[in-house]
Write a structure and sequence with these properties.
The protein has 144 residues and is mainly beta. Helices cover 5% and strands 35% of the residues.
Length: 144
């Protein structure tokens, strides 16, 4: 089980079960949504996710047609995202986890969009766009 929260603590959640594999996404949308050099998100079935938001702080923003990003309207912390086409699969923002997460990223994706100031070090494979599915399956994304 994992637990997570937003920065101000008004939104909390619990996850039963495992999160999917993940990669670091450097696309412009993920960079802007995370406020950092990349996004780090792992998918799971919504039935395994329990949201605790007793005062209704969670809001959603449609960042591109059919993609909704959920965040705390008090502190702005991103919590998860999902596609209208697959609403039962959500992608947790790994930075919102409060419990240890031991999986390691499988790849860097959309490095063609990475921030000019970012240097990517290490041995993870890098892809200009989506990683091939034999390297990383990005559960709940638009990966072809």
């Amino acid at each position: 089980m994992h637990k997570g929260s937003c920065l101000c603590g008004h939104i909390n959640y619990r996850i039963e079960g495992e999160l999917s594999n993940f990669g670091y996404c450097h696309c412009t949308s993920c960079r802007k949504a995370s406020g950092s050099s990349h996004g780090a998100n792992a998918g799971l079935h919504r039935s395994k996710f329990e949201l605790m938001d007793p005062h209704g702080w969670l809001r959603e923003y449609e960042s591109s047609p059919g993609k909704l990003r959920a965040f705390c309207s008090n502190c702005g912390s991103p919590v998860y995202a999902y596609l209208n086409s697959t609403p039962d699969i959500i992608r947790i923002r790994l930075g919102s986890l409060d419990t240890p997460f031991t999986k390691h990223a499988k790849a860097h994706t959309f490095v063609s969009d990475k921030a000019s100031w970012e240097v990517i070090d290490g041995d993870l494979p890098q892809f200009d766009e989506w990683a091939p599915r034999d390297i990383l399956i990005q559960t709940g994304s638009r990966q072809p």
